[in-house]
Known about the structure:
Helices cover 43% and strands 19% of the residues of chain A. Chain A is of the alpha+beta class. Chain C has two domains: 7-30 and 298-409, Aspartate Aminotransferase, domain 1; 44-296, Aspartate Aminotransferase, domain 2 (3-Layer(aba) Sandwich). Chain C is 40% helix and 16% strand. Chain C has helices at 7-11, 40-53, 63-82, 96-111, 130-139, 159-163, 184-193, 213-216, 241-246, 281-297, 299-321, 349-358, 371-377, 393-409, and strands at residues 28-29, 90-93, 117-121, 142-146, 166-172, 197-201, 220-224, 235-239, 257-260, 265-267, 325-327, 339-344, 361-362, 364-366, 382-386. In chain C, a hairpin with a 4-residue loop joins β9 and β10 (265-267). Chains C and D meet through α2, α3, α4, α5 and β9 of C and α2, α3, α4, α5 and β9 of D. One pyridoxal-5'-phosphate sits between chains C (95-97, 125, 127-128, 172, 176, 201, 203-204, 224, 369) and D (254, 277-278).
Amino acid sequence: MDDFYRDFILDHYRNPRNFGHLDHPEASAEDLNPLCGDTIRMEFEVDGGVVRDVRFSGKGCAISQASASMLTETIKGMRLEEIAKLSKDVVLENVGIGISPTRLKCATLGLRVAKSAAIGEIAGWPDEE
Amino acid sequence: MDDFYRDFILDHYRNPRNFGHLDHPEASAEDLNPLCGDTIRMEFEVDGGVVRDVRFSGKGCAISQASASMLTETIKGMRLEEIAKLSKDVVLENVGIGISPTRLKCATLGLRVAKSAAIGEIAGWPDEE
Amino acid sequence: MIAVRTPEAIAADFPILGKPTSRGKRLVYLDSAATSQKPQAVIDTLVTYYSEYNANIHRGVYEIAERATETFEAARVTLARFINADHREVIWTRNATEAINLVGYSWGLQNVKPGDVILTSQLEHHSNLVPWQLLAEKTGATLRFIPADDRGVLQLDQLDRLLDGAKLLAISHVSNTLGTITPLDRIVPAARRAGATILVDGAQGIPHLPVDVKALDVDFYAFSGHKMLGPTGIGALYGKRALLEAMPPFLAGGDMIRKVEYEHTTFNELPWKFEAGTSNIADAIGLATAVDYLTALGMDWVRAHERELLAYALERLAPLESRGLAIYGPKDPALVSGVLSFNFADVHAHDLASILDTDGICVRAGHHCTMPLMEKMGWPATARASFYIYNSKADIDALAEGIEKAARVFKI
Amino acid sequence: MIAVRTPEAIAADFPILGKPTSRGKRLVYLDSAATSQKPQAVIDTLVTYYSEYNANIHRGVYEIAERATETFEAARVTLARFINADHREVIWTRNATEAINLVGYSWGLQNVKPGDVILTSQLEHHSNLVPWQLLAEKTGATLRFIPADDRGVLQLDQLDRLLDGAKLLAISHVSNTLGTITPLDRIVPAARRAGATILVDGAQGIPHLPVDVKALDVDFYAFSGHKMLGPTGIGALYGKRALLEAMPPFLAGGDMIRKVEYEHTTFNELPWKFEAGTSNIADAIGLATAVDYLTALGMDWVRAHERELLAYALERLAPLESRGLAIYGPKDPALVSGVLSFNFADVHAHDLASILDTDGICVRAGHHCTMPLMEKMGWPATARASFYIYNSKADIDALAEGIEKAARVFKI
Ligand SMILES: Cc1ncc(COP(=O)(O)O)c(C=O)c1O
Ligand SMILES: Cc1ncc(COP(=O)(O)O)c(C=O)c1O
C-alpha cells in the first residue's frame, strides 16, 4: 500500500478539488463508513439533468478524500443517470492502483455518496434522508 | 460399569427395600437429578432424634434406586445428626465398586435427599420445600 | 453429489473415530443428535486460522485482519448458499438456542401482544419451548400445542383451529427425541393463511436433510453448527430480510452500530445489526468448512444414508422386541431421520447406556431436553441412538450386540 | 511467578508470530487490545478436544462425554480461581459484550426503574455504553457520565454528586482507546456508599492486570477470552452469587432448566441457570489453557512487562513529537496499560496503519469502538499500538521506523 501514496494522491488529499459547499444545491447526500467513521458529503448543482457544479466535504483518510476529490472532477458535467450507473471502476481508474478490500471501502465512499445523491434527485426524493 | 450390576444390586433394584410411603412421616424430602430426571423421595419416622422407620419412593436407574434402597437399610436407627453428616463414602461402601462421575450423581441422589430430610427436621424447617 | 464414498471412508476423516476407548474398544459413536463429530478438515481450519491469520475483523487494515475479515464473511456466504438465503439474512449466533432467543427478545417483544397465540408442538426441545413460555409470560400471550399421537406423529386435523389467532408458529424441523420429520409442507401453508410468522427450529433439520429456506417458505430458521460437523460455539439464525430489517437490535455493543453518541446510537445494517461484540471468528470459519464437507457429500446422500441405516436398525433390532425392546416413534424410515429412541425391558436407559459404554458404544439416555414429551408419553427416560454420515451397519450391529449384553448383565 | 522468560522466548510459543507476511516481513503484532494471539498450547487444546473427546456435556454417560463434562467444568474452576471467585459465580458467555448485555437484560430490566441513574464514563467502549442506552430507554432511567479530561483521565471531584441516585455504575477497568487504568479503588467505595450495583467491563483489564474480584469488591466483572490468549467465541461474566441467584434467567433452553412442563419451567441452579443451549465447550476448555499460560507467567510479570514496554515506547517515540507525532493519554506508564494511541502530522490513522502494514506492523486505526470519546476529544481517528506478553522492544523499534517511513511517504 505504500506505493499508493503517490504525489498526485497526496496533492488531492492536501488540496482537495471542489471542496466545500454550494449555496443552493439541487441534490446532495452524505454517508459515513461505519467501520472507521470517515464521512463524505456531496452537493450538486443540477441543470437539465446535468451536474453543472459539485462540492464535497468531509473528513477521512487520504484514500477516501483523494478519491472523492478526483471523483468530483470526473462527474462534473455528467448526466445524473450516468452518475447513478457508475461502477467502482471509475474510482480504480482514478487512483490507478490496486487497493486492499478494507481500504476499497474508503476509496469508494465518495462514489457511494455521489450515486445516492444522483439517484435521490432522479427519483425526486427529498434531497436529505 | 458392566461389573457394577452384580446380583445384590439388581436385587435391590428389582426388590427395593423400604419402598413406599409412611402414613405420618415426621421428616421428608424429595429431589430430582436435573440431568436425567430421576426422582427420589425419602420419608422418616423420627422419635427422640432417631430415625425409627424410613420409606423411599421414586423412579430411576438401577444405580439410583439400588443405592437408595441400600441407604434406607443403613440409616434406619441412625440419629438425624449422623445422617446429616454422612459423606458419599457410605454410598460407595454400599455399592462396593467405583462409579464414573456422571453416574455418581445417580448413586448419591438418595443420600442427598436423606440428608436434606434430616437437616430439615433438625432445623425445624417445614418438611416440604 | 459424489455419493460414492462409503461410511468407512468417511469415518477415516474423523480422527476421534480412530481412537480406541480406554478399554481398547472401537468408538461406536451413536450420539450425533447431541453433537456430531468433526472431520480433520474442520479441525485444520481452526488451526490454520489461529496459526496464520488470527485477527479481529471488520476494522483492521493490516494483512491478517483483511484475511480474517474476508474469510469470515465468505463463511457467511457459504452458509447462506447452503440454505438458499442471502448472506445478509444469516446472523451468527452461539447455537440454535441463542438464535431462537434472539427472535423471542427482538421480534417477540415487539410483535406479540396480550391475547396473541404462540403455537408450537408437543414434541419440542426445551430450547424451542421455554423461550416461548417466557415470552408468553412477558407479553400476556397464550401458548398452544399441536398434539402428537402415541408414536410422536403430529396430529394436524385441528391445525386451522389451533392456528386461529396465532401470531407465531414455532416448530422444530425434526424431533430430536424421536427423529420424526415435521410435515412443514402441510403446516407452513396453513400458518401462512392464518397470518402467523413462522420460526423453524432446524437444530435437527439442517444436519440431516436438504434445507432450502425459500422453498420451505419460513420466516426464521435457527440452527447449531456443532450438530452439522462444525465446532462448538457457533450457530446461526436465518431471517427474512424484511423481518430482520424491522426488528430492533438484540445484543448491543461493538460492531452492531453505525454511529454512537453518548446519548444516542444508530445501528448497523444487516447482518451486523444483530452481531454485537467480537464474533466467534474461528468457529464461523470452521463451520463453513463443515458445510463444504456436507456439500461435497450432498445432502440427498446424507438423507438417503441415514434412511438406509434406520431401516437396517429397525430390521436388525426387531428380534429383540419379543425380549422387551420397545422402539418409539413411527418406525417408518420415510417419516424419520437417523434417530432411534427405545427402552429395553426393565433396564433403565441410563444403565443401558452405561453398559453399552463399556463396549465403546455411545448413546444418549434421559429426557433429551424434551421433558414434557416424556411426561406425556409416560417414559421416565429413553435411550437414543442417532446416526450420521460416518456411521455404518457395523455400528448398528454393535448396538444390537450391546443390547444383548445388557440382557445378560440384567439376567433377562 | 517464573518471570524469567524473555518476550522472544514467549513469542516462540505463538505460531503466528513465526510466519512472515506476504511481503516477507516479520509479523510485528501490535493490536492485542483488539484480540490477542494464541499460544500453541491453546491451539493444541482445541485439537485434542476435537480429536479425542468431543461430546455434548452434562448428560452423556459414556466415556468421552464424561471427559468432556469434567474438563469443561474444570475449565470454569480454573477461570474462577484466576479471578478469586467461586466457580458458581462464573457464567460462560460469547464475549464481554454478551456478558454486559446479560446483566442489562436480566438484572437491569428487573431492577432499574424510571428516574434511576445509570452512571458510566466518557471513556467507554460501545459495548459498555449502548446496552445502557437501550436499558435507559426501556426503563426510563437516565444515563450519566463521569467526565474525562483532555488526557483521558477521569475527573472524580464530582463523583459523589454523579453517583446520587445511581442504581448502577458500569465502568471499564481499562480504556481500550487510551489504556488508562480506572482508579477502581477510589470509585468503587464511593459507589458502594451510594448503594449502586457495580459492573466492571474487564475486557481490557483481566488480560493485562492481576484481577481479584473480591478485592476489587465489584458485583459483576465481564470479559472476553480472545483478548487474553484464548479462542474467539468464549468469554465470561462473574457475578456475586446473591445477585445471580436473585436474577431471572436471560436466554432460555436446554441445560438451564431444572424441570420443564408444557406450561411452566423451573430453572437450574448456578451457574447453569444462565447457560442455555449447548455451550462453547471446546473454546471454554481452550480458555482454561490460556489462563494456565498466564498464570505460569504471573500477572504481575505481565503488568510489569507492559509497563516497561510503554515506558520504552514513550521514550523511543519522543523525538518524533517535534515532527508532528501526537501521543494521547496521560503518558505515564503507572496510569496506563500497554496501549499507545497517537496521530502523526496530517497522515490519517488509516493511511498510517496501511503504510505500517507494508512492513508487517499491525496497529489499529479508527475510533476503536469509542465514537463518543473521539468526538469529545476532536480526534477523527487515532492509530493505536497495543502490547502484550510476546512484544519486545524490537517491536517498538519497528513501530518507530514505520512512522519514519510514513513521514517519507507523506513527504513530511
Ligand atoms: C473496553 C472494552 N470493552 C468491551 C469490549 C468488547 O469485547 P468483545 O468484542 O470481545 O465483546 C472491548 C473489546 O473490543 C473493550 O476493549
Ligand atoms: C430440536 C432441537 N432444538 C434445539 C436444540 C438446541 O441446540 P443447541 O443446544 O445447540 O442450542 C437441539 C439440540 O440439542 C435440538 O435437538
